[in-house]
Amino acid sequence: MSGPAANGAAKPLLGVDGLSVHFGGIVALDNVSFRVEAGQICGLIGPNGAGKTTLFNVLSRLYQADSGTIEFEGKPLLRQARHAIAPLGIGRTFQNLALFRSMTVRDNVMIGGHCRARGGFAANALRLPFVGREERTLGERALRLIETLELGAVADTPVAALPFGTQKRVELARALASEPKLLLLDEPAGGLNHEEVEHLRDLIGSIRDRLGVTVLLVEHHMSLVMNVSDKVVALDFGRKIADGTPQEVQRNPEVIKAYLGGEL
Amino acid sequence: MATLDTSRPAAAALFAGLSLRAWKVIGLAAVLAAACVLPFTISSYQLLLANQVIVYAVALLGLNILTGYNGQFSLGHGAFYAIGAYCTAILLDKTGIPYWATIPLAGALCFVAGFLFGLPALRLEGHYLALATFALAVATPQLLKYKDFDFLTGGVQGIVISGPDTPGGLPLRSDQWLYFFCLLWTVPLFVLAWNLLRGRTGRALMAIRDHPLAASSMGIDLARYKSLTFGVSAMYTGIAGALGALLAQFVSPDSFDLFLSIRFLVGIVFGGLASMAGVFFGAIFIEFVPNLADLVSKAAPQAIYGIVLIVCMYLMPTGVMGLLRALGHKLGRLVAR
Ligand SMILES: Nc1ncnc2c1ncn2[C@@H]1O[C@H](COP(=O)(O)OP(=O)(O)OP(=O)(O)O)[C@@H](O)[C@H]1O
Ligand SMILES: [Mg+2]
């Protein structure tokens, strides 16, 4: 069930090479390299502070890398502006939520589709015909995602009024609205109960299978990661300590050591 | 997964058989009709006041687009009002351009001025932006008085201009015509702003206000949106200034002091941040409350003004529109029950 990497010479969807990031004296990422093939679900694990969120933030150009390269579909990512990442096809959710809190669920999801429309100031002010069509398309797509993620009852409620778990789903809907090729999920199971995690597993599976979206999944919930992922990358203190199938990574002595007393 | 039932009854409720949306349309039509009848029912002086309210509403709309919708503070919008006013006054004073053609020129000039001011201001967040705009407000009257610009600005004296005449054939007094002229600018400006704010651009502006970092991760170019918003905002306030100059038939440095900028800010907060209808309540407040305060106490009108403002903000912390929305919500619940 691994991705369509039949041809070894083919470029991966995402190629991270020798990536390092430090904050003052802290080395958050230390010469990290790995690749994600199109169509894969790749788990990214590691103890607290291992550098997983930092990696996501470098991928979305929120943090600056000190050295190393990232290629997305063969193009160098680190030369792109921050706002150019979503149009390229990389969507994400945030570990601690980064929603537009005063806005409704529907508007949040529609902003997710911002990069898939083009009406600017003048075209919007004059409400040119193409702007109306774009709005309808965005609105219909948002509605479908709202229904898929069971947000229909709260579609017109401001996000700030919703419980944490619901807000997580809004983030997911918003990320999907950008029609990403690669979806970065930062601890989507945080704060969910057992039944909700089951549901999430199916959801991540169907995002890949039905929408054809490649997924990079940061998660502490081990059974979820090991169940859903095609491959897993493990970080510890910013270093990559393992990279392989879920079974291989689970048996890796360094991973066991890093998680000693943990869930594995 | 848990589903929450907080769907808003007000949105779907019917009042006397009509939806809330239909009532809004009816209300808007009624207000427009009243605005057209108004100049035939009140005195010239009252008409002047009403006209000033409309002009202030346009100025406040400009500031509200920037501050209420986009979250960029400006303590200096009086400066753009002044630039618009002086642009019209100087053009009328020095060139043969017809008065109606000065309005779009003033708007264009203020758009450029606002855009250019917004570019470096991009690097400034919150309090620092407030300080930079504050400096703009402080500098404006002094620049207008500056000796070397005398030949254009008329220095401390300012510029006296003559008001527009009614175009031939129209059975209107000149003040009535000026009122309709202002209305002819105001209505399209509000329609354009409404279009701008309800679609993709408006959502992007509000997203930047709520969470700039997440907004840029959604593909929104912060620099572009924030500087263009500054330009559009300054354009609205500048057009208001230009219309205000025609109304007052006079511009002078001291009518555009720091206090004007602060009154604009008071206006949008009083009416309700990020509300288009709210700017009319704000405009009424900043036009009439100073006069009322004067009536109450000749000795300390500013103190009365301050007290009225504090009481209003205490009673309506989210402005008039916040209060109206809350009332509408309650009414919706009652009707739905
Ligand atoms: N903006 C920042 N400034 C300074 N240090 C930072 C910053 N962001 C992350 N760090 C540090 O980098 C290291 C990696 O943090 P990161 O958030 O990437 O870990 P993580 O793997 O996501 O952990 P968790 O599982 O707890 O979310 C930590 O030591 C953290 O304190
Ligand atoms: Mg993290």
How is the biggest beta sheet of chain A arranged? 6 strands, mixed
Number of strands of chain B: 4
Shape of chain B: globular
| Gyration radius from CA atoms of chain A, angstroms | 19 Å
Number of helices of chain A: 10
Helix content of chain A: 25-40%
Helix and strand layout, with pairings?
The complex is a heterodimer of chains A (264) and B (337).
Chain A: E1 14-23, E2 26-36, E3 41-45, H1 52-59, E4 67-72, E5 75-76, H2 85-88, E6 90-92, H3 105-112, H4 121-125, H5 129-148, H6 164-177, E7 182-186, H7 194-211, E8 214-218, H8 222-228, E9 231-236, E10 239-244, H9 246-251, H10 253-258
Helix pairs in contact in A: 3-5, 3-6, 5-6
Chain B: H1 9-12, E1 14-15, E2 18-19, H2 20-37, H3 44-69, H4 77-94, H5 99-121, H6 126-145, H7 150-153, E3 159-160, H8 174-198, H9 200-210, H10 212-217, H11 222-248, E4 250-251, H12 258-271, H13 278-296, H14 301-315, H15 319-336
Antiparallel strand pairs in B: 1-2, 3-4
The structure holds adenosine-5'-triphosphate and magnesium ion.
Residues 23, 26, 28, 46, 48-54, 95 of chain A line the site of adenosine-5'-triphosphate (ATP).
Describe the 3D structure.
- By secondary structure, chain A is of the alpha/beta class.
- Chain A has helices at 52-59, 85-88, 105-112, 121-125, 129-148, 164-177, 194-211, 222-228, 246-251, 253-258; strands at 14-23, 26-36, 41-45, 67-72, 75-76, 90-92, 182-186, 214-218, 231-236, 239-244.
- Helix content of chain A is 36%, strand content 22%.
- In chain A, strands 6-7-8-3-9-10 form a six-stranded mixed β-sheet, with helices on both faces. Chain A has a four-stranded antiparallel β-sheet with strand order 2-1-4-5, with helices on one face.
- In chain A, helix 5 packs across helix 6.
- The longest helix of chain A has 20 residues, at 129-148.
- The model of chain A is unreliable at 1-8 (pLDDT under 50).
- By secondary structure, chain B is mainly alpha-helical.
- Chain B has a domain at 44-165 and 172-257.
- In chain B, strands 1-2 form a two-stranded antiparallel sheet. Chain B has a two-stranded antiparallel sheet with strand order 3-4.
- In chain B, 45% of the residues are buried.
- Chains A and B meet through helix 2, helix 3, helix 4, helix 5 and helix 6 of A and helix 8, helix 9, helix 10 and helix 11 of B.
